[in-house]
């Protein structure tokens, strides 16, 4: 028996949205994964990153191997660290509120990222959502991060591209979350 | 950028000193810059044209590119620059001036005909980020 993979069965990048917020104060937002469900508390005001052309997320585990006498010579291990890394390519954006382009400043989400250019202790709270379905259940990854490996490119076809990595600090939560109300896909500019 | 903004930018650009744009003489005798937005109909036959004319297509060609949670709408505005004055070099001057404002514009020269001295088809790329629905 064979199955045809129907397109609606596939989760698409266009249904993925990345939110960032500025961590303030001395404590990070609390995130946890329990039985595959993510809970988040204390998140700052979150802004979506628009103009993202490419994004990737990796969750890297560090392990320590150990060997037990009488274990037949096989290695065992324990995961001692977990770190998330999101690599993002986005267009550099000015701020637009409503339909008015502001003469100064950047888009609110871009501004959160750009602060890391001069403040290396600045932390960003990151939430990446992939819509699974319903109203509205997402697969999500949540973590506090610092912005690293920031770079800009100036191609002659006119659009300035920014690439950066969001390297997690502290707990990383992965799993499902259900949002009541409306979809997290943006419908208007950040304000 | 919408068609009104594009028309205004190009009109100001080509009408700046020294003015390169020609003029339409309307049936009532008044004159206006020869910049026309071609929508459901072309330039009215009763408009009398002098010099350089710019006819802009009202609707751009769309070429969307998906993004992450949004999409990039790559628009291409198409227009034709026509010089009805056989003794001027304004066509090339106008193309040069448009290049300085829109350095990513593309120009295709079309040879002269019985009616016109020379003409350029000009394509101006324009990008915006749109929301999904």
Provide a quick synopsis of the model:
By secondary structure, chain A is mostly beta strands. Chain A has one helix and eleven strands, in the order ββββββββαβββ. Helix content of chain A is 4%, strand content 57%.
Overview of this protein structure:
- The complex is a heterodimer of chains A (191) and B (133).
- Chain A has 191 residues and is mainly beta.
- Chain A has one domain (7-178).
- Chain A is built from one helix and eleven strands.
- Chain A has a seven-stranded antiparallel beta sheet with strand order 4-1-9-10-11-6-5.
- In chain A, strand 5 (52-67) and strand 6 form a beta hairpin.
- Chain A starts with 15 loop residues before the first strand and ends in a 13-residue tail after the last strand.
- The two termini of chain B are 21 Å apart.
- Chain B is elongated, with a radius of gyration of 16 Å.
- In chain B, strand 1 (23-25) and strand 2 form a beta hairpin.
- The longest helix of chain B has 13 residues, at 3-15.
- Chain B has a single domain (3-131), classed as STM4215-like, CATH 3.30.2000.
- The mean pLDDT of chain B is 91.
- The interface between A and B is medium-sized, with 24 and 16 residues.
Using brief descriptors, characterize the structure shown.
heterodimer; A: 7-stranded antiparallel sheet; two-stranded antiparallel ribbon; 1 helix; B: 133 residues; alpha+beta; STM4215-like; 6-stranded mixed sheet; 3-stranded antiparallel sheet
The most extensive interface between chains reads: A-B, 24 and 16 residues
Mean pLDDT of chain A: 92
Strand content of chain B: 35-45%
CATH class value of chain B: Alpha Beta
Shape of chain B: elongated
- Rg of chain B, rounded, reads 16 Å
Helix/strand-derived class of chain A? mainly beta
Largest beta sheet: strand ordering of chain A: 4-1-9-10-11-6-5
Number of strands of chain A: 11
What percent of the residues of chain A sit in helical stretches (DSSP H or I)?
Answer: under 10%
DSSP helix count of chain B?
Answer: 2
Alpha-carbon distance between the two ends of chain B: 21 Å
Over all CA atoms, what is the radius of gyration of chain A?
19 Å
- Looking at the chains present, what oligomeric state does this protein adopt? heterodimer
Poorly predicted runs of chain B = none
């Amino acid at each position: 028996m064979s199955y045809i993979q129907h397109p609606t069965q596939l989760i698409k990048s266009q249904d993925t949205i990345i939110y960032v917020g500025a961590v303030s104060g001395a404590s990070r937002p609390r995130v946890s994964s329990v039985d595959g469900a993510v809970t988040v508390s204390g998140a700052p005001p979150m802004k979506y990153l628009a103009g993202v052309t490419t994004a990737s997320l990796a969750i890297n585990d560090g392990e320590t191997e150990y060997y037990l006498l009488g274990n037949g010579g096989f290695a065992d291990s324990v995961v001692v660290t977990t770190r998330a890394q999101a690599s993002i390519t986005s267009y550099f954006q000015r701020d637009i509120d409503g339909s008015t382009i502001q003469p100064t400043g950047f888009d609110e989400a871009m501004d959160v990222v750009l602060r890391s250019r001069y403040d290396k202790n600045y932390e960003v709270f990151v939430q990446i959502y992939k819509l699974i379905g319903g109203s509205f259940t997402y697969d999500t990854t949540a973590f506090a991060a610092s912005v690293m490996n920031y770079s800009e490119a100036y191609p002659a076809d006119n659009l300035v591209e920014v690439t950066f990595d969001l390297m997690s600090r502290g707990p990383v939560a992965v799993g499902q979350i259900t949002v009541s109300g409306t979809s997290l896909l943006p419908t208007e500019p950040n304000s | 950028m919408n068609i009104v903004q594009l028309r205004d930018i190009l009109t100001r650009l080509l009408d700046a000193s020294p003015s390169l744009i020609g003029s339409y003489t309307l049936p009532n005798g008044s004159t206006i810059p020869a910049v026309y937005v071609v929508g459901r109909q072309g330039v009215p036959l009763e408009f009398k044209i002098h010099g350089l004319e710019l006819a802009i297509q009202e609707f751009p060609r769309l070429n969307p590119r998906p993004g992450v949670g949004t999409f990039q709408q790559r628009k291409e505005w198409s227009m034709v620059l026509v010089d009805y004055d056989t003794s001027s070099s304004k066509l090339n001057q106008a193309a040069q001036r448009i290049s300085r404002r829109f350095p990513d514009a593309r120009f295709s020269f079309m040879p002269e005909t019985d009616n016109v001295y020379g003409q350029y088809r000009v394509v101006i790329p324009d990008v915006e980020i749109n929301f999904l629905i």
